Amino acid sequence: MHLQKCVSFFILKMIRLCMKRVESVNILEIQDLTKKFGDFIAVDHMSLSVAEGEIFGFLGSNGAGKSTTIHMITGLLRKNKGTIIVLGKNSEKSATFIKRNIGMVPQELAIYEDLTAYENVHFFAGLYGMRGKKLHERTVEALKFVGLEGKEKIYPRNFSGGMKRRLNIACAIAHRPKLIIMDEPTVGIDPQSRKYILDSVRKLNAMGCTIIYTSHYMEEVEEICTRIAIIDHGKIIAEGTKEQLKSLITDSKLIVVDVKSPEAVDLAAIQAIQGVSNVQLDDQTIQIHTELGVNNLNHLIAHFIQNGIEIRSLDEREPNLETVFLTLTGRNLRDA
Amino acid sequence: MERCLISAKMVLLLFVVFSIILEPGRDVSWAVLLILLYICANFSIYLFKSVRLKTFCLLLSAALAIVGYGLVHPLFILLLPLAILECLHEKMNHQLIAQLISLVPMFYIQTDMRPLYVLVALVMGLLYRQVANYDKKLATAHQQLDTARENYQSLVKRLHERDSYLKQSAYMLKLEERNKISQEIHDNIGHSITGALIQMEAAKSLLQRNPQKAEKLLQNAIGITKEGIESIRLTLKNLKPSIEHIGISRLKLYLNEFAAKQHISTILTHYGDMERILPLQWKIIFDNMNEALTNALRYSEATRITVDITVLNKLIKLEVKDNGRGIDILEKGLGIIGMEERAAAADGKVIIDGKSGFSVTTLLPIQT
Asked: Which uninterrupted H or E stretch holds B169?
C-alpha cells in the first residue's frame, strides 16, 4: 500500500516536471543585456523573451542595435553585461550547442562565389554538423525550399541579388534549426524575391521554426511578424503584437468618405453605426473616427447606398508601425 | 590549504619517527632534537607574517632535513621535498617545474633511499598541486561571491531609493494640498463663521431687552452665514482644480522663468487629454524636463528649446528638444541615469537622440 502510494507520487511528480518543461518554452530569453563600444552604448539594458513558434520582429532604424543584439545571441560578439538564454541554455556555457542548433542568416551575404550553389549549402550544413547521406538530402531539400532547385551547379556570381539572398537562407536552414535568426534578409532585392523570402519565412514558421527577424522595413515586419519589438538607441521602447503597438498611440482609425451631396448625409445615423466614435463633416468629405479592430465598412457603405448618396472615394487611414515609431521617437525609421 | 599541508607533514614525520624508533640499537636523542627543531621551524612559518621570515623558516627546515640525513638518519631526507615545494611555490608560476626541482636531490643521496625519496616527492608534489589549485579556485569563488553580494546590495539600495522617491513625491503633493486647504479655510470660511457667531452672541444677550435690535442682528448673522456657505461652495470649487491645470501651468511658469533667465526661447506645446496624467507622472515629467533643460543649458549652445507633452492612447510622451549642436556618441552621466530611473519607477522609458539637436523623450504608460 505504502509502496504504491510512493510510486504514484513519484510518477505524478515526474509528469509535473515534464509539464513544466513543456510550459516554459521560451526559445530565447535576454535579461539586462548591455554592449558598449568604448563610450558608445549599442545595447542598453535590454530584456526580452521569444516564445516557441513566434516570428519575432526587431524593428528599428539603422544603428539602433539590432545586429549587435543578434551577434551577441549567436556568440559572435561578447556582451558586457546581462544573460542570454537560448534554447534553455546559457550562451556562455553552451556556446557550441547554441551555434549548432540555430540558423543564422547574416545581413552581409555569407556565401562563397567560387563554390556552386550546392557546394555552398553542403559546406555550411557540414559546419553545422551534418554528415554523409543526411547531409546530401538536407542540402537538396534546402535548395528546393528556397526555389533554387535545378540551379545546384551554378556559381553564385551568376546569380541575381535575390537568388544570392535565397542561397544565403538555404545555407542557414539545411540543418533544420529550431531557431532561425534573419538579419535584414531582404536588403537590396527585387520585389518578387522579397515576396518569395517572406513566404518562405512563413512556411518555415509553419514547419515549427521560431524566427527572429530584423528589418528596418516596416511593411515586412508588419506583414509577417507575430510579435514585434521596436528598438531605438539600444533600448526596447515598445513591444507587443502590431495591434498592441498601434493601440499604444491611438484606439481609432479615420475613414474619410468623399461624397457627392454631403448635405444629404445624416451624421447622427452614421454615429449610431457600430464602432463609430465621432463623425464630422468637412467640406465635401465626411470624417468618421472608428474604433480600431472593428470592421464596419460594410455597414457604412450600406448606409450611403440605402440613402442614395453617391460615394466618390473612400479612404481608410489606419495607423501603421511607421506612425507608431514616428510618434514614439519623433524620427522616421529610414533616418540614418 | 595550510591544514592539509600540516597534516601531510605530520604523516611524513610520523613515518620517519616510527622507522627510527623501530630500528633496534640506535641513539634517538639527536633524532628527537632534530624533529623538535623541524616542528618548531614549520610552525613558525604560519606564525610569521613577513615573507622573508617565512622563507627563512622553510630554508631552515630544508637544512634540518639535509643535516638529519647526513648526520643522524637517512630517512630525514624525506622531509626535504615539501620544504622545496613550499619554498618555490611563491616564486614559480609552474608547479610542475617546482616538482621537477624537488626531484633533483635524488641524484645526491644513497641508492637505497632513492625509490622512497622519489615516491614521497611525487606524492607530495601531487598533493601540493591539488591543494594549491583548489585554494586558487576557492579564492576566485569567494571573490565572485563578494562582487555578487556587492551588486546585490547596490541594487537593493537603488530599489529603496526609487521607492523612497515615489513615496516622497506623493507625500510632497499631499503636503502642498493640505497647506492650501488650511489656508483657504482660514481665509474665507473661518472669518465668516466667526463674524456670524459674534452677531448671534449679541442677539442672544439683547433678546429680552431689545427684541427688534436682536432680530436685526440675527438677520445679519443669517446673511453672513449664507455668504459663508456660498464661500464654502466657492472654496471647494477652487480647491478642486483639474490636475492638468496644476501640471501644465506649473510647466508653463517654469519654462517662462527659464527663458527669461537664460535668454533661450522656450516653446511649450501639448496635445491630448491632459486629465489622464496622474500627479506622480506630472512630477516625473517636471523633474525630467528640468534635468533636460539643465543639460541643454550646459552643453547644447542652443537658442531654442521646445517641450512637447502628448497624451496618446496608452502612453504619455514628453519630448524636450533643442536646436543645439547635438552629440554623436553619448556618455551617460548621472543626470540621464536619473531621468531613466525616474521613468523606470513608473514603468517608463527614456530615449535620447543627439543627431539633429539634442532630444530627450520620456515615455510613460498611462495607468488605468
From this structure: helix B114-184
* Contact at CB, A329 and B353, closer than 8 angstroms: yes
CA distances from A148 to A115, A141, A159 (A): 15, 10, 10
Closest Cα partner for B350 from A328, A68, A32?
Answer: A328
**Residues belonging to chain B:** 368
- A269 phi and psi angles, rounded to 5 deg: -65, -35
Give the largest CA-CA distance in chain B.
142
Picking from B318, B328, B349 by the largest number of A CB atoms within 10 A of its own CB, the best residue to mutate is B349
Q: Using one digit for the tens of pLDDT, what is the confidence trace for B218-269?
A: 888 888 888 888 877 877 776 665 555 667 888 888 888 888 888 888 899 9
What are the φ/ψ torsions at residue B38 (nearest 5 degrees)? Answer: -60, -45
Q: Which tens digit of pLDDT belongs to each residue from B156-198?
A: 998 888 888 878 887 888 888 788 778 877 777 777 888 888 8
A217-251 burial: b if 16+ Cβ within 10 Å, else e:
bbebbbebbebbbbbbbbbbbbbeebeebbbbbbb
Residue B1 above 80 pLDDT? no
Which residues, 6 or more positions from B115, have their beta carbon under 8 angstroms from its beta carbon?
none
DSSP string, A254-315: EEEEEES-GGG--HHHHHTSTTEEEEEEETTEEEEEEETT---HHHHHHHHHHTTPPEEEEE
- Three-class secondary structure of residue A107 per DSSP: coil
What are the pLDDT digits (tens) for B38-58?
Answer: 888 888 888 888 888 888 888
User: What is the arrangement of strands in the sheet containing A276-282, beginning at the earlier edge strand?
Assistant: A276-282, A285-291, A252-259, A311-317
Measured between alpha carbons, how far is A179 from A87 in angstroms, rounded to an integer? 8
Residue linked to cell 637517512 = B74
Burial class of B335 by CB neighbour count within 10 A (0 to 12, 13 to 18, 19+): middle
Q: Do A328 and B331 touch (CB under 8 A)?
A: no
Which residues partner with A285 through β-bridges? A258, A282
Q: Are residues A237 and B349, on separate chains, in Cβ contact within 8 Å?
A: yes
Q: Sheet containing A26-37: give its strands across.
A: A40-51, A26-37, A81-86, A89-90
| pLDDT value at residue A336 | 44
Dihedral angle over CA of A117, A118, A124, A126, nearest 10: -170
Average confidence score pLDDT of chain B: 84
State the average pLDDT for chain A. Answer: 86
Q: Which of A235, A247, A335 sits opposite B351 (nearest CB)?
A: A235
Side-chain half-sphere CA neighbours of B232 within 13 A: 9
Q: In chain B, which residues have their Cβ closer than 8 Å to the Cβ of A249?
A: 312-315
Cβ atoms of B306 and B266 within 8 Å: the answer is yes
